[in-house]
Each structure stands twice: as structure tokens, then as C-alpha cells.
Amino acid sequence: MDYFIELFCSGLSRGAIYALIALGYTMVYGIIGLINFAHGEIYMIGAFTSFIVATVLSILGFPLLAIVALSGVAAAVWASAYGYTIEKIAYKPLRHAPRLSPLISAIGMSIFLQNYVLLAQTSDFLPFPELIPDFEFMEPIAHIVGSSDIVIFITTAVVMAVLTYVIKFTRIGKAMRATAQDRTMAMLVGINVNNIISATFIIGSALAAIGGLLIASHIGQINFYIGFLAGIKAFTAAVLGGIGSIPGAVLGSFILGLTESFATGYVSSDYEDVFAFSLLVLILLFKPSGLLGKAETQKV
Amino acid sequence: MFSLKTLRTGVLISLWFVFLTFPLMVIKVDPLERIIQWRWKNALLVGIGTFLIYLVVQYLNYRKEHQPPAKVEDTKDQVSFIHKFIADPIQRKLLFGGLLVIAAIFPFVVSTYQTNIMITALMYVVLGLGLNIVVGMAGLLDLGFVAFYAVGAYSYALLNHHFGLGFWEVLPIGGGLAAIAGILLGFPVLRLRGDYLAIVTLGFGEIIRLVLENWSEFSKGPSGISNISRPGFLGMELSLEGSILYMYYIMIAFMIFTIFVVNRLQDSRLGRAWIALREDEIACQAMGIDKQKTKLAAFSLGAFWAGLMGVIFAAKTTFINPASFTFLESAIILSIVVLGGMGSIVGVIIGALVLILLPEYLRALSEYRMLAFGAILVAMMIFRPQGMIATVRRTYRFQKK
Amino acid sequence: MLNLENVQAGYGNILALKNVSLNIQEGEIITLIGANGAGKSTTLMTISGVVTCRSGKILFQDKEIQKKSSDDIVKMGICQVPEGRHIFPQLTVKENLDMGAFLRNDKAEIKKDMDYVFSLFPILAERRNQDGGTLSGGEQQMLAMSRALMARPQLLLLDEPSMGLAPLVIKQIFEIIKQINKENNTTIFLVEQNANQALHIADRGYVIENGEITLTGPAKDLLSNQEVQKAYLGI
Amino acid sequence: MKKKLFLAAAAMCLAISVPVAGSAADTIKFGVAGAHSGDLASYGLPTVNAAKIVIEKVNANGGINGKMVELLVEDDVCKPEVATNTATKLVSEGVNVVLGHICSGATKAALPIYKNAGVLVMSPSATNPDLTQSGEYPNFARTIAPDDAQAKVDVEFALNTLGYTKIAVVHDKGDYGKGFAEFAKKFLEDSGKAEVVLFEGVTPGAVDYSAIVQKIKQSGAEAVMFGGYHPEASKIIGMMRKKRLKVDFISDDGVKDNTFIKVAGKDSEGAYASGPKDTTKNPLSIQAVEEHKKMFGTDPGAFFENAYSATLAMLNAIDKADSTDLDALKKALQTEKVDTPIGNIYFDEKGDAIGVGFSVYQVKNGEFVEL
């Protein structure tokens, strides 16, 4: 039973990690219908920025709390700036292009950003400063759940609650939903669609950056390539839950995380990804738009 | 040409990029030695570089806008130069004849290295044409095409390793197995549309690779299979140069065969069914097209070509391991199809030659080549989203008597 | 109030509006009639700034608007109910109406306007918490018009409000168009294939063919024009 | 028209091929191949640096037998299919000897091409046993010991010195890591002294390893033997410490890298890793590291010393044989001992370096200490 709980907890923490990245995917997909392959790279850039800022601050002798706050803000600011710029350069000119063109552009952008960070910084793995210290009160259960797991989990929960509130009740959230559902009509009621799309990229990127900071601190290292696998997994999770749906992305992430964890624990970690992808295929077989996705209604 | 306002925007944009790249380009830290390196020169370079790129883009836009206003009336007849050129039967024969001669003597004029990379490029031409059936014609976005390539490659490697079967014997087997894999994948995913299909095919590609990686008893795992025989010529063993030459001609023949088949397919009942399916599934079903069979046919035919190329790939490198069949490979093949121009045969050929030869010739840039590759993909899509050679829709003209 | 001067616009290589000039005075109901694909909807989309105007001028209250973005145009008081309604399917009726008032900040006034449209279309009040996508065609049309009214437009562009609706509903809709025009002094630019109905409520009309205005005049004259009768009224 | 087109094409082809044919053989062409871009670049780039340092020094001293050494650097991204192109390119350019490739897979794919051209290849890092033991690649040598030798050292250490009876073997599913792990498992089982309680691969680059750590704990292993590279090793060991799992960690040469200690920090304390015998006190090694710091301003990366030594060994062989002929070079490699940062080495007939052995290290106070 202990073993089950341990695996369950690692599944949850893995799921929470995926969720932070998957939210950005799902928001961008929801609004412009694009699989933003560069999203994993935004996450990586967020992690790298927080690494640089945190290290500089710690060398300059700032206290831990200030380091965490400042590096988090810096990561979010710069990742958002990258997200905003990427949208303007690589996707905006392609809004009326054939459907696959933005996808290729996104793949190109992803390759470009990886190599940009490789050249601007280093190909080596770098130790990420430990921004989440071990909490004293966690010690009795530290063998099951670590402090960083808890922090990641709480962050994901808070982020999801705030995001749901924003999307449901605020002006910008309503504008986002309207733009996602009918872009032309959104323009006709006076929504500046370009600004809304930019805002979506900015919010999604900021979330990815926060994710980058937490995850890098959790596993203690970064390099320029960490975005790739994390991106693909988060994307899988987003599709699993029904891409375009925010609760769906979170649900999909937890299901994916738990599946991987239990597959590792009870079968073999050799095939953890095989399990993850098979689960995806299986779920889509029965629910072709994902768990919480809205079925595409077809007009005949 | 450049107004003051353009210049001011240019300065602002370059300042934005200086800000954007600031942490990554300027600061470099060593967390253990606790050293901070400030590379201010990079900020300057980014600023100037962005400004120059901005001016170039503005200049290009300016030229585009100030061209004599496009003859709007007859733009429908505006077809790319290549298509116009091919349309004339004599010119077409001349062109194809010329290309064939160039292809035939190519290996004698250039070094073995050039021939070798040309073989790779030709393989990607065929792969691109195969994927074009699935993506371009039938409109099914497949992000795991490389799985079928892997099936072909491992068929040859394993059959050769265990049973000593030769290249020509395995070629049809490899293609067949890949086609079967295509059908197996096709069945469950027929109901899915668009991006859901894309992610499932991506997953399928990863599953195949992971199984090959982990099931060591079957596939020798990550260490791969080495010493795969090169194709023999009438039972003779060839030297390395000879065999590269031989491979080259096999690939030329293959490419011609593929072009021929794909071309015929396009005009066949099946080809039209695919195109119709791509445009409107429901209308298609209403017209009595069997959606299932048509989609499966697209998957299996595309996979068949990937399987054949897989066999050739294994024979060419003589060593394969699962690392050659990653998602990036699928992405590159897809890029070939889209970059060249979806559904266009000429486009796919040019796309493959550009995308495969480009990184090879960019070797001079060494570590910057993947950076350049990514940038070129983005730039190509921005400036020519329909691909280098857009498909020409068949047009029928109403003749007034 | 609104002047189009030699407007050209189109999609890609196709020029849908070759040369369109027309003008609308304040308080009028103007109708634009024409066959399928003549360029009616493109005219409206160009006014709204969704389709770019390639040459010519569009003047609204003597200000050039052809270069402005669509949200700025809405801000100036031009609102459109596009063809096919374009309800936000996953927003509730109330949220759809809120979207109509997207650019406004005066909460009390918005509330008043909402009550006003509910009085125009009582059925919407009943369904206020239902998703827009679940409404019937007629209800969607009502919702679309109400949504446009929520912006308090000076000029309301209506694109085929009668399309696909039952005759009784059509009648009701046209009544309300007249009512809106009278009660709020809202200028209305009505695009219709149902030329008969449209010309009956309009003050003046334009006929568009192949992207060019071919005929114009008071609605009554057009109704009695033989060409119009033959081509659009089925007489 | 046709003729013109053809002539133009022919001229173009010639233009491409001319520089290749045109370069005369008055320099020694020293090829360096490996991953210089992509996710494995950190294993390939130090080799390029090593070659640059040595060759600059040699050329400054007047070259070898009056000939200057020319460096040809080519990227293979560690992919077999690219490696064949890389190899063909180097051969076309008339390369005399090649330092590389980095990954065993790419090396295997490239070797037949070099073999055909009679080019000597020496890898600083390709450890797959087949490369030398199969006898299929007579033109291959390496300055690193093969996986099986390494696994043997680790297993013996775990059994005899540490006396463990329950060991979990974990790998990174990669060519190198899984190869090592399979040998380790085989030796452990053959010894009859210990039980392999777990044999599994982890996914490199995964965001979290807590599930596998829980599984290790569940298996009751006293030690984890890990085959793979340092990024995964530091993640696993970090996660083990986070989950308060106190079992020993034994690993391979891919982990015996200072980056491991840097990245894993205090978690790495007490971990064991096998690596080439300690040469850090070797003056040549100290000198090599100093040279790297001077030229590039940073500490050298993975396989730097092996690459440095391989460069020295090959250049020495060319010098002694006064030729770049494969047979002469092989003979020189087998007979002429050479002083390198990894010791005074020569090569056996199969191409493995003699004098390169493994010892086990432990991290003590942030440094690898030979045991």
C-alpha cells in the first residue's frame, strides 16, 4: 500500500509538472488552432533566464526569497517577451496561410531557439540553484513527497484556479473565448483580435516560464534541450484532455503523469512512454476529441 | 525609400531585440566558480544585426508593393514558371531528357561525397513523395511517418542478419511490412480528424522507436545492427565507390518509378477520391466514396514507399539503430512536403533537394548550421507559405463557340 | 453619414469589389441587393475593416476609415450583423450580449440596453443562460441583432437577416428593423437577397452586380423597375 | 538550349568538386568527426578543442617531418546516417587520419568507409566492445577502454570491496548506457555472489524520476549500478536523496565527469564511478587542462583528455612511421609508446589502448578520488 501511495504521489507531481506546460499549449491551440511546437522552447528559455538571474543574484549575495521572486519575475517577463515576439514573427504573417505552414514555421522556430541557446550559452548541463529549500515540517513524509513536489502541486492548482477565473469572468477572458470561437465575429464586436492573441501567447509563455523555474529547481539541472521532451509530453497531455480546454489540459496531465508513474512502478520504466502514448491512442479511440474536448460539430 | 519613420521603427525593433536577447546573449554565469561574464559586444551585434535585417525586409516589402500593380484580371492564369515550362510537350521532353543526362553523368563529374549525399537527397525525395500521398493528397496529417521507414529498415537489417536474405529479396518484403503497419495504424485512427490524428501518429512513431530501443532480444536495442550487406550487383561484391555508384543509379530509377506512379495515382479514381476526401469528407461519403478504404489506401501506400526507402537506408548506411528514427526525422520529411508545396511533385523534389542538401552545404557554418536551418524554415514559410512550387489546380476552360 | 468612393477590395487574387460607390444619409434605411457572389457581403466586410480596402475611400462622418482596424471602426459606431449570424456558440446568450457591449464601460447604461433588447426579443430573456449554439435559427438571428444593438451603433450593417428563416420569423425581424430605425434613429444598411422584403422597408436601394453598382434609386422606383423585377423579384 | 544547360550543369558540378581535387598533399590532413551540434554536442566539442590545441602546438614547432597539420572538422550529430556522409566527405577531401567519431553507433556506420580508403580512425569515446573485438575494423583504435572492461571493474568493486548482494541495475536506454548495464548484469549474475533485483531503463530528459526511485527502494537494493551519462545520473541521485533513499550509487565513465559533481552538488558525495586510471597528477594532463583554459577560457569537457591523447598518439605514429599509410601507422601505434595525458600508452592488435585501464573513484569533498 505504501508503495502504491508513493507511486501515486510521484504521478501527481509529474502530472502537475506537465500541466504547467500543457496549459500554454492548450490556450494557444484554443485561440489560433496551432500546435505551437516552440512552446517547449519557451519553457526552456524561461528556465534558462531564471537560472541566469538566480545565479547572478546569488553571486551578488541577495537573500533566497528575493532570488526566488526576482528570478521568477524575470523568467516570466522574458519568456512572455519571447512568446510575443515569436507570434509576431513566425505565426502572425501565416494567419491566412494553408494550415500546415504555421506548423512547419513552429518546428523551424523550435530548432532555431534550441540552437540559439546552445550557441549563446553552452551545450553543457548546468546546475540549477536550489530555489525551493527542504521545509522542516515536510521531513516526516519527505520519503514520499518532497517540498518541491508540494510547491509545484500548489502552484499548478493556484494557476489553474486563477486562469479559470480569468477566462470565465474577466473581460479579457471573455474576449479570448469569443476570439477562439469565432474570430471574424470577435473583430466585428470590436475586439482587437491581434492584442488578444498576443495576450494569449504572453500568458501561456509566462506559465511555461514559471513551470520552467519550478521544474528546473526540482530536478536541479538545465540545458538547451530540456524543452523538447517536456514539450511533447505536455502536448500529449493537452490532447488527451481535449486540446483547447483548460481543465482538460490539467486532467490530461494528471492522467498522463499517473499512468507513467504506475507503468514504471508495476511494469517497467523501459516502456513508460509506450504506455503513455498507447493510453493516448486508446482514449482518442473512444473519445475522438479527448476527455473534456468539445466534439467538433460539423455543419452539413 | 526609407522614411524617417521606418528608420525609427527599425531602431525601436532592434532595441526590443537587444532587450529580448539580453539575459541569454549578454550574461554568462558560472555557478560554481561564481563568475559573471558580461558580453556587451553581443548586445551591440544583436542591435545592429536586427536593424540591418529589418531594413532588408522593409526593402523587400517596398519592392513588392511598388511593382507594377499585379494584373488582377488574369491572375487566375498566373502559373509558376516551371509549370508553364512543363506544359509544353517539347520543352518538357527536352527538360526531362536534359535532367536525365545530368543525373546519369553526375557521379562521374563529382566526388564520391557529392554522390553519397545526392543518394540521401534522392531517398528523401521518394520519402517526401510517399508522405505527399498521405498529407498532400489525402490531407491526413501524419507526424509519425518515420515509423514506417523504421519498419522497412529493420526488416532488411533483421532478415539480412538472421537469414542472410539479400537486398532485392527484402525490398518488396520491407515495403509490404510497412504497408501492413500502415493499415494497422490506419484502422484505429480513421475516426480522428486533423490535429488529433497528428498527435496519434506522432505517438505511434514514438512507440515503434521505443519498442525497437527496448526490446533488445528482437532488435538488438540501442546498439543497433551493424554490417548490413550492401546490395550486390548480379551476385558480385562491389567496392565502396562501386556500391555508392550502384546505389545512386538504383535511387535514380526508384525516383523515376515513384514519380511515374504518383503521377498516375493523382489522376486515378483513387487519387481523386483522396483529393475529394481532403476537401470535404461528408460530401465525399454522400457521393458514395468508401471513406475507410480510401483512407487506408492512402496510409498503406504512403507507408509502402517509406518501407522501401527504409530498406535502402539500411543498405546504404550498413548500420542502423533506433536513434535514426526520431520525431525530428518525421518533422523534416513533413517540412519537405510543405516547403516544396503540398501536393506538387516538382515541389516535393525541390523541397527534398533543398532541405537535405542545405545542411550538408551549410557544413561550412558548422555549429551555426542548425540555427540557419531553423531560421530558413521559418523564413520560407513567412515569404512563401504555399510552398516553393504551389500545386496547380486542374482547370477546365469553357470554350465559347 | 457613410460614403464609399470607388472602393476596390478582394481576397487573394480575386477582386470582389471592382468599383463601388454609394452613400448613406443619417436615419435612412438603405438596402443593397444583388445575386449570390455579387459582392454584397464583401462590401459590408470592407466597411467593417475585416477585408482590406485596396483602393478608394470610405468616409464615415467625414472621416476616412478605410485604413482603420476593425475594432476602431466599431468604436466609431459602425456595427455589423454578419451573414450566418456568427453567434459565439459556447457563450451564453447573456455573455453574447456582453460581447456586443465589449467596448463600453458604462455599466448602468449597458444594463438598460440589455433590458431594451430583451423587450424587443422576449424569447432571449427566457434563454439568457443558455449557450448561444443551442438556439434555433430565428433566435440566433435575434441574438445577433441584439448583440449588435448592445454597442449602440449609429450605423447598423445587416447582412441577410432573413436567410434560412421561416416566413413568419422573417416578417417579425423586418418589423423590428423598422422599429430600431425609428426608435433609436439608427441608420441601417441592409444587404438582402430577399429583395422584395428589403425594398419594402428601405428608403433607397442599390443594386450590385459583379462587384459594381449598376442601379440606384428610391426603393419604390426600384420595386417598379422592370429589370429589378425580372432579376430579383421574380415577377 | 539543351547543350547549354548541360554545359552549365557540368561546369557547376566541376566547380563543386575542384577544390577537393585541387588541394595538394603537402599537409597532413587531420580529420575530427563527432557531434558538434544538437543535443550531444557537449560530448563532441571538447574533442575539437583538444585537436585544435595539440595541432596548433605541433604546427608552431614546424609540423611533423616538415609537414603542417591541417584540421578538418566535420559534424555527424551522432547519427549513423549523417556519419556516413561525414566520413565520405572527409575521405573525399583526402583526410589522412581521423579523430572520432564520438558515439559508437555513428562510428560503426562510418568505419567501413574509412576502411575502404585506408584511413586510420581513433576514437576518444566510442566504447562499444564490438568495435575492436569483432576484428571487422582493422583501421580502428581508441584511447578509451571498452564497456565490458569497465563493467567488470565496477562489478568486482561492488562485489568484492563493497560486498553487496542485492543490486539494482539501471540504464538510460542509450547505446552506451544499456551496453554497460547489460555487461554489468551478466557479470553480476555469472559471479553468483549477488542478485540483480532490478534491471530497467529510464527515459533521458524526463522531467521527474521519482517513480523509478520508489521502485529502486521497493526492490530492496543495496546499491544502484547506473549505465549512462552524467545528466541522468545526477537527476537520479538527486531524486534518491530527495526521497531519503540511502543506497550507494555506482556508475560508469559517462558519469565520471566533473560536471556530474557540479550539477549534482552535495548529492554526489559518496557516489562511485569508474573511469580511466587517475591521471590528474600526470604533468601532461595538468598541462593539457591549462592549455585549454588559456585557449578557450573554460574547463575542458567530456573525453577531452582521451581526445588529447589520441591526437598525440596519431601524430606520433605519423611522425615515427613517416607516412600516413594505414599499415605503417598501425605498426607504429603498436610499437611506439607515447606519453599522453592518460599515461604512457601503446595499442594492441585490435586497437585497444594498453596502459589505459579503469579504476573506481568516489566523490569525496566535491572531487573524484581514486580508490
TrEMBL record, chain A:
Its main location: membrane. It is found in: Cell membrane. GO terms for molecular function: L-isoleucine transmembrane transporter activity; L-leucine transmembrane transporter activity; L-phenylalanine transmembrane transporter activity; L-valine transmembrane transporter activity. Keywords: Amino-acid transport, Cell inner membrane, Cell membrane, Membrane, Transmembrane, Transmembrane helix, Transport. It is a multi-pass membrane protein. InterPro entries: ABC_transp_permease, BCAA_transport_permease. GO terms for biological process: D-alanine transmembrane transport; L-alanine transport; L-isoleucine import across plasma membrane. GO terms for cellular component: plasma membrane. Belongs to the binding-protein-dependent transport system permease family. LivHM subfamily. This is Amino acid/amide ABC transporter membrane protein 1, HAAT family (TC 3.A.1.4.-). The chain crosses the membrane at residues 16-35, 42-60, 66-85, 97-121, 141-167, 188-216, 274-293.
Automatic annotation (TrEMBL), chain B:
This is Branched-chain amino acid transport system permease protein. The keyword Transferase does not apply. One of its GO terms (cellular component) is plasma membrane. It is found in: Cell membrane. InterPro entries: ABC_transp_permease, LivM-like. The chain crosses the membrane at residues 7-26, 38-57, 94-111, 165-187, 194-212, 244-262, 296-319, 331-358, 370-392. Pfam families: BPD_transp_2. It is a multi-pass membrane protein. It comes from the Bacteria. The keyword Cell membrane applies. Its main location: membrane. Keywords: Cell membrane, Membrane, Transmembrane, Transmembrane helix. One of its GO terms (molecular function) is branched-chain amino acid transmembrane transporter activity. It comes from Desulfopila aestuarii DSM 18488.
UniProtKB/TrEMBL annotation, chain C:
Belongs to the ABC transporter superfamily. Gene3D superfamilies: P-loop containing nucleotide triphosphate hydrolases. InterPro entries: AAA+_ATPase, ABC_branched_ATPase_LivF/BraG, ABC_transporter-like_ATP-bd, ABC_transporter-like_CS, BCAA_Transport_ATP-bd_LivF, P-loop_NTPase. The lineage of its organism: Bacteria, Pseudomonadati, Thermodesulfobacteriota, Desulfobulbia, Desulfobulbales. GO terms for molecular function: ATP binding; ATP hydrolysis activity; branched-chain amino acid transmembrane transporter activity. Keywords: Amino-acid transport, ATP-binding, Nucleotide-binding, Transport. It comes from Desulfopila aestuarii DSM 18488. It comes from the Bacteria. One of its GO terms (biological process) is L-amino acid transport. It holds the Pfam family ABC_tran. This is Amino acid/amide ABC transporter ATP-binding protein 2, HAAT family. Residues 2-235 form the ABC transporter domain.
From TrEMBL, chain D:
Residues 1-24 form the signal peptide. Pfam families: Peripla_BP_6. Keywords: Amino-acid transport, Signal, Transport. Belongs to the leucine-binding protein family. The keyword Electron transport does not apply. It comes from Desulfopila aestuarii DSM 18488. The keyword Transport applies. GO terms for biological process: amino acid transport. SUPFAM superfamilies: Periplasmic binding protein-like I. The lineage of its organism: Bacteria, Pseudomonadati, Thermodesulfobacteriota, Desulfobulbia, Desulfobulbales. Residues 27-366 form the Leucine-binding protein domain. This is Branched-chain amino acid transport system substrate-binding protein.
